[in-house]
Amino acid sequence: MALDSEKLLAKLEPLAGYTQLSLKGKQLLRAICEGEPARTVGRQSLMAVHGELYSKDVDSTVQFESIAERTFVLDSLCDPDTLGVLCQPAQLRVLAHDRRGRQSHRTITPDYIEFKAERFCFIEVKPLDVVRKLGQEYPADWVQDADTWAFLPGQVAAHAMGFHFRVQVNGDEARVWQANALMRVRLRLSKVEPMSGAKHGRILTLLNSRPRTVLELCERVGGVTAGQLLQAVEAGLLHGMLQLQVFDDGFLLFANAMDVERHLAELKRHAIVELPAGPMLARYLRASSTELAHALCRQETFIKRQASPEKKNSAYYATVRRIRQATSESAPAIAAFVPNFSGRGGKGRPVPEDAKNAFLQFVKADYLPRVKGRASPGRAVAAFERDLPQHRDAMSDETMRKLYHQAFAPEMVALATRGLRGYHATRARTDGSKVNVRAAICGFNTHLDGVRVDTRSDESSDGVVLIYYPLVDDSNSYVLSRGISINRPHQFGVNLALRDCVARHGFLPATILRDTGSENNNRAEPEKVALLGVTFQHRPVSAPRHGGADEGFHGKLNEYASSLPGSTYHDAAGRAADGAKKSRRHARFTVEELIAKLDHWCFEVWNKTPTGADGLSREDAFKDQLKRYDDLLVRHSVTPLLAYATGYPIDIRDPNPRRGIRTHGQVFSSQALTTMLQQGARPKQARLDCVDPSILWFDNGSEYVPAYSFDNAKLQAMGIPQRVLYIEDMLNDARDRKAVAKTRRRRDTELEQCVATATTPAPAVDPCVAAAAAPAPAPIEPADEAPARKRVTPAPIQRLGATP
């Protein structure tokens, strides 16, 4: 949704932070509010998790392209002192250092600008490890003061205009906090009624004996929801550990803050304080007196060398790396200088460096690019000995296998052969202590991705293939809704899944995770996020396993679809092993029958099959949790706002009060559109309804009003499958008309070039020379028929008073 700059500026001008700005700063602020973000984040990234959040403060969307930025945006939206946040505000001209220490002017784009009553601040969001690397590479620019970091060139440029500049550092401790922050944002956006005094007293009575979970309190006290409990924790009426525990059914609630501190102290007494000893710490603990004395001498020499202005050599930087390794193992710095006297000797025959480098280069450049199937170290060694026999006696086969495993881990082999997608598909599972957590709440985090159904329809439907868009819950794989498109992915299928979810349940999930396909990344997405109030988070392009819940359901769906007649499982072209056209020859179901069977399997079989030890189905578990978390979901109903937000964007060209709007081979008109055009207003964009394509929605400034095509009455009796086919025909007709128009323009261009070439005057030639060089004229033959007369259409008579 476009930012209302005048409304935002009117909100900011009375603040003290605005009065601190210089004239140039006020001009920059107006340019930020009136312009678009300096860049669109995350669209071209292979590794980043990106998406958009709706901000009620600025009535627009805020983009993020990493978990660190998402955490900052959520914290800002939860902070009552923050009056608004805008992403990618503008470029600043700074005087910064390079790696050699030279100063030069350059432009930087801060991640965000934050508005508070007393100051307006540019924000640069970085993970902790990234900031530490920048501090080592650019020590004159990135400075650490206690636990905070500062970017000095950005501060100087911002202070010159009256702004502030801050570096927001997010470490690993923010993982649980950012999982809870999304629920706190939903709590601010939803209208949760606070619990009554009687219910609060009943809860305190239960908590005086011991801490209790959210599930216990909701079951013991009637009418209390999880949203009311979270609201009480935010207000200080109840207490919990939002920094350490994800808010879900197992979240512990306490009567007072002293109980929380007592509980944390009890946990610390039983916690593992010491980490397993690393090699540096183990060597330091086993060091003899001679080795410790030698370590002290080496440490003193290193300190003197560190303080000297002389240029540092490679030995100095090797010592720095050893100190860093010792610190990471919770060992003292002197552990980096303890020699390993006991490990000397017995090193064996050294491997020649030229042979080692030749083997590694051969595997990387020759073996891995041409390998078919799975790479094998034994085959790599055999190929090396065959192609480079001069190095055969330099190393044993076991030594070459060891070098192979050291340099080419499975994920690195996949990176060299299949790129980043293969790397993510092969690498080991993420360490559980470093994973980004999500609350296991039904309906709160969902996945939406298209899957090509492995069944083709019969010949009456031209053998089309369905693209199914199930909206799958992350906690128990419950299917909330589904969208459908024909033969290719399209945003009609995504929007139909959202409309279907509202029609079935009356709400939308708070967060929808999806991939970066064209049906999800388009110009209508920012406005859809702002209108619906839903967070759309995109999975990285190179990380296919991030949508595990969705992909697992896709496999089960196609396992069922492959059992139906017309299965395309055996081959992408629909062929069996003998080359017969299996899917087209055996297809028996129309599109309507195929959609009905898939819907029945999803909503009646998959959702209602008992799972787990409790014997509950996915639908029963979903409805049970929905009673407690109902007020944290995004409530919607089928309204013109929802129809416009989930519609297909249409550019309006030459709207006419009499003829209406022409698009996709249809003419849309209504009395509201005629009145609007007669008053001089012109809608810039319209939305084609994803459920009823005979309706075109547009914004007249105060409300969303429809325009109807001539097929409106015909579509009212159609079911969803017939409407999906109707939409596919509309899209195909529009594509054909574009292709015909493109061909016609190309022919017209070629004709104009030919005419221009023919009308170019020829160079002057002597008539005598031309007559001599001209060929003899052919004899005149009598014509069999007279040439056809050209028909001339008379011009129409212009009547008096008529408009030409």
From TrEMBL:
<dbReference type="InterPro" id="IPR036397">
    <property type="entry name" value="RNaseH_sf"/>
</dbReference>
<dbReference type="GO" id="GO:0003676">
    <property type="term" value="F:nucleic acid binding"/>
</dbReference>
<protein>
    <recommendedName>
        <fullName>Integrase catalytic domain-containing protein</fullName>
    </recommendedName>
</protein>
<feature type="region of interest" description="Disordered">
    <location>
        <begin position="772"/>
        <end position="804"/>
    </location>
</feature>
<dbReference type="InterPro" id="IPR012337">
    <property type="entry name" value="RNaseH-like_sf"/>
</dbReference>
